Every structure is written in C-alpha cells, then in structure tokens.
Amino acid sequence: MADTTQISPDTTSEGERTDLGRAADKARIGAPSDTVDTRAVIDGFTEEGESLPGGDDGVEQLGFKKHSHGNAPVVPEASRGERRRSFDLADFPTLTGLEEDWRFTPLKRLRGLHTDPLTGAAPAVSVTGAGNVTVETVDRSDARLGASATPEDRVAAAAWNAFTEATVITVPRETVADGEVMVAVTGTSPAAAAQHILIHAEAFSKAVVVLDHTGSVTLAQNVEIVVGDGAELTVVSVQEWDDDAVHVSSQQAKVGRDARYKHVVVSLGGDLVRLTPSSIFTATGAEVEMYGLYFADAGQHLEQRLLVDHAVPNCKSRVTYKGALQGQDAHTVWVGDVLIRKAAEGTDTYETNRNLILTDGARSDSVPNLEIETGLIEGAGHASATGRFDDEHLFYLMARGIPEKAARRLVVRGFLTEVIQQIKVPALEERLSESVERELAAGNL
After folding, report:
1. Strands (E), 282-378
2. Which of 109, 120, 332, 341 is most buried, judged by most C-beta within 10 A?
C-alpha cells in the first residue's frame, strides 16, 4: 500500500542522496572501496551468499516459516532462480489469484487470457524505418523462435502455444541501423489473441527498436530479445492502448558478452496492462539499463514485474522506474527482482522505484527484491518510495509567482521527464510528453 512520503521530482545523478532517497527503504551492500579489494567478502555473507539462520537442523526459525499468500496451494519458490519455465501450458496450474506472482492482478479483468483459448486475430504489425534491418514474417516452425526465451507463467505459455505467425526483426552483424525501427502494433478486436515478436541484434550491431502499441485488444504477447556479443540495442515498449484494452506481455532479453542493452517501458493506456520484462546476462562484461514510466487514471491497473538475472561475473545493471497515479481505484504495481547468482562475482547493480500519488483513492504497490548468492560483488542495492507532492517544493514554485495548478504540473512533468529522455528518439519523446500533459489535464491537475 502507498504511504504518505513526500516526493520531490529532482533527477539527481546516480549516487546522490536526495530527499526522496533518504525517505526510501534502501539497502546497499558491497560498495567499492578505494583502499581494499572491492570484492572483499561482505559482513554477514560468505562466498556462498547471505548467511541465514536455521535450515540445517530441521527446526523452523522464527521468520523463516514456509508461507504463501492467502493459503495458496503452491508455496513460492525459495529463489527467483527456481521459477518454473516451460513451453507446456499443462505445467502451469490454473490461476487462483493467490499465487505470489498474481496476487496483485485482478484476474477477472484478464478477459480469459489465463483460461480461454487464444483464437482471436493478432494485432496487425507494421514496421517502418527498417532500412538495412531485416524484417520477416515466419510461421511458428521457424527454429529461431523460442530459442532465447521460455515462458515463465501460464499466460505466456498460452501465448506460445496459440500464435501462428511471428514477426522477426534482425539487425545484421556489425550493422548500424539507418534510423529508429518503428514497430506499430495495432489492435482492432477485443477477442483474446496471441502474438510473438523476435528482435535479434547480432554481434557488434547497433539499433533502436520501438514497439508502439495502440488500438483495442485482449492480447497475450511474447517478445524475445537477443543482444549479441558487443551489440548495442535499445528497445522501447510504448502502451498507448484504447481505454478497454487488456495486454499481458513477457519481454525476455538475453544479453551477450560486452553488450549494451537498454529497455524502456512507457505505459499510459489500457484497462489492464501487465508487463514482465527481464534481462538475463549470458556472458561477462555486459551492461543493462531498464527504465519505466507509467501513469494510471481512475480504474486503471498498470503492473510491471521485472527481472535482472546476473548469472555470470562482472556485469552491471541499473533499473529506474517511475509512476504517477490519479483518480479513484487507479492501481499500479511494480515488482523488481534482481538475482545475483553464485557465479556472478564482480556484479554491480542498483534498482529504484518512485511513485507519485496525485489524488485520493489511488493505490501503488512497490516491491523491490534483491537476492544474492555470493558476497564477492562490487555493489548491490535498491530503493523504493511512494508518496504525495512535496509541499515545500510547491511552496518554492508558488513563491515565485507560479500558480498552484501550474506548479503541480511542473512537479509531475519534471518527475517523469527523466524516463522519457532515455528514449533518445525526439519525435517520440515529444509525443509522450504531450500524452503526459493530456493525462494531467484529464485529472484536472
């Protein structure tokens, strides 16, 4: 649930302790030192990871009892790395809403994506600006499909088994894309449907790919992303659906040696949108940035569940998600899982989520999770804060002659601009900034 922490919209550089940061629930461990080995074992940790009490003598320790939310029939996995992965729908039990991964999601509003056959027509896909990038439509027998991503939940598995054709976008080896690759995904039917997209940046290539979702849909979608060795890839996923749209999307990326991968989510439209982006390091020296912006209106449910999987040594990740909420029953969910496996020595990671509640009646759930299996890391931490306007900041603006309503808009605009500016596509940044202004106007802010 949201608290009443006041949020200031400053966008200071990484590492600075802002007012928001001081109010946030933070944890940083293993920070580098100028005088000692930066991979020295951390207090309370061994090379095997965190040293926790109990478990060997068969006696349950206080606070370590197995549990599930609402007495769900399935006990959550002890580790995020143990999550079930399968292409077989039968491997995923029927959802009840009590499962850890689904407890925030209103299943009744999924319109059958988790229960019914996905037989509707998939949204139309139109690709522009490809230039020297290859775009194909292939059937499901293509060997490239499913090679880099395996479904992790029932809806993703249903989508895998239901799609008939896929869009494959390939940036050839050592190719710099001529411009932004714009992938328009346009929904025209509310019938439950499945869709599959594969984006492959081959070794030492460079590209920006924008997935632009509009229209009306009930869609279960899988997006596979492969970032080859030494490649630089930015994927932007924009959700500006019609008000009745339901969209559940798994966007899994595998990141190669010395690669650079940026993933940006902007969720504005739709009735219910649930995204599960993940970044999995497969070789050393890679860097990942994951950004997200979401703005929920009355009755809207916007959910982001991300994973950063540090499975190999000497990789770096940064996660920054920001949300705004207004109106009765506006609900946002952010769950950020960062997993540092035993082999991932030298990891450097930090994630943060900030939520700004603009009116009464809105709710934001924010759950940062950091799981560490080795103490030999450069640094790891997370921060989460949810609150209302910073009265002192508003007073500062109003004292300089800015009317209160305009001052509030400036605060929100400044709060969200950090994420929009990460897109680096001027026309799209301008469009999304205008969309944020329309959201503010609709809320009479």
Report:
1. 287-296, 301-310, 316-325, 331-340, 348-357, 363-372
2. 332
Q: How many domains does the chain have?
A: 1
Query: Tens digit of pLDDT for each residue in 329-342?
Result: 999 999 999 999 99
CA pair distance 175, 34, nearest whole angstrom: 39
CA distance 209 to 158: 25
Q: Print the domain residue range for 211.
A: 5-442
Both ends of the chain: CA-CA distance in Å?
A: 23
Structure confidence at residue 85 (pLDDT): 86
Side-chain-side CA neighbours of residue 125 (13 Å): 22
CB 236 within 8 A of CB 423: yes
- The tens digit of pLDDT for each residue in 70-120 reads 454 555 566 777 778 899 999 999 999 999 999 999 999 999 999 999 999
For the segment 371-399, the average pLDDT, to the nearest whole number, is 90
User: What distance in Å separates the CA atoms of residue 255 and residue 234, rounded to the nearest whole number?
Assistant: 12
Distance CA 297, CA 442 (A): 9
What proportion of the chain, given as a percentage, has pLDDT over 70? 82
CB-based contact 241:216 (threshold 8 Å): yes
